[in-house]
Structures are given as structure tokens and as C-alpha cells.
Amino acid sequence: MTTERHFKGVLEMYDLLIENALKIEAYEIVVKGMVVKELTKGSELETFFEKYKGKVKVSVCSVAMEKLGVPAETLFEGLDITPTASVRMLQLQAQGYNTLTY
Predict the structure, then answer these.
(1) Which class is domain 4-94?
(2) ∠ CA 85-87-90 to the nearest 5 degrees?
(3) How many angstroms separate the Cα of 86 from the Cα of each of 23, 56, 93?
(4) pLDDT per residue over 45-89, tens digit each?
(5) Which runs of E-coded beta strand occur in 1-102?
(6) In this structure, are strands 57-61 and 79-82 parallel, antiparallel, or unpaired?
(7) How far apart are CA 94 and CA 38, in angstroms?
(8) In angstroms, rounded to a whole number, what is the distance separating the alpha carbons of residues 101 and 91?
(9) Taking a C-beta distance cutoff of 8 angstroms, is the pair 101, 79 a contact?
(10) Under 8 Å CB-to-CB from 99, ≥6 apart: which residues?
(11) pTM
């Protein structure tokens, strides 16, 4: 996931699936790229994410955080840090989850 638009779109996809009566046991977004800089406290994306807290898990790539100079303490509440986005995606696939990549 690389842009704010993609992040919002994937969150809204969750809404669409729920509206179409799909039972979701686990929904996770794995975030990497420039959007990581927008996942900070007080940002527009923090406000947008509020309604998804506790419903959608968001894993943020620590490599992207390091490259972009985003300290963990600046991320807004409700985000998890994962060592790398690629490894997290492989873990999810190995566990049998469906995955989409943007």
C-alpha cells in the first residue's frame, strides 16, 4: 500500500464487504511506502481510521518507517508494527488468508 487514497480505499472495502453480508473473521491491512508518513498522531488518516479501530488490523512495515524517518511513538493508536511488509504478507498467505496487493 503506497498512498493515502489506497489506505482509505482498502478500509472502505471492509465496509463494502460487510454491507454485502460477508462474515469477516479477520481483516488486516499491511502498509508500506510513503503512506507510512501519514499514519501519525493528529493526521487526517487517524481521524478516518477511528471507525475501524477494533475491526481492522493494520500492520506497518518497520523498514518503511526507518527509511522514511517515522518513529514508532509518532504512529497513531491501533497500528501494529511488523518487521517487513513482505514477510507479513507471506505469513498471511501461509495461514490461508486471501490477499490483495496494491
Answers:
(1) alpha beta
(2) 110
(3) 26, 19, 11
(4) 999 999 999 999 999 999 999 999 999 999 999 999 999 999 999
(5) 28-31, 57-61, 79-82
(6) parallel
(7) 29
(8) 14
(9) no
(10) 89, 92, 93
(11) 0.92
Sheet with 57-61, strands from edge to edge, namely 28-31, 57-61, 79-82
Grid coordinates 464487504 are at which residue? 17
The residues near 32 (Cβ < 8 Å, ≥ 6 apart) are 1, 2, 60, 61, 63, 64, 85
Cβ neighbours for 89, distance < 8 A, ≥ 6 positions apart: 30, 99, 101
Would you state the pLDDT for residue 2? 63
Q: Cell 490483495 identifies what position?
A: 100
d(CA 3, CA 76): 17
**Three-state DSSP class for residue 86:** helix
Is residue 102 pLDDT above 90, yes or no? Answer: no
DSSP 35: G
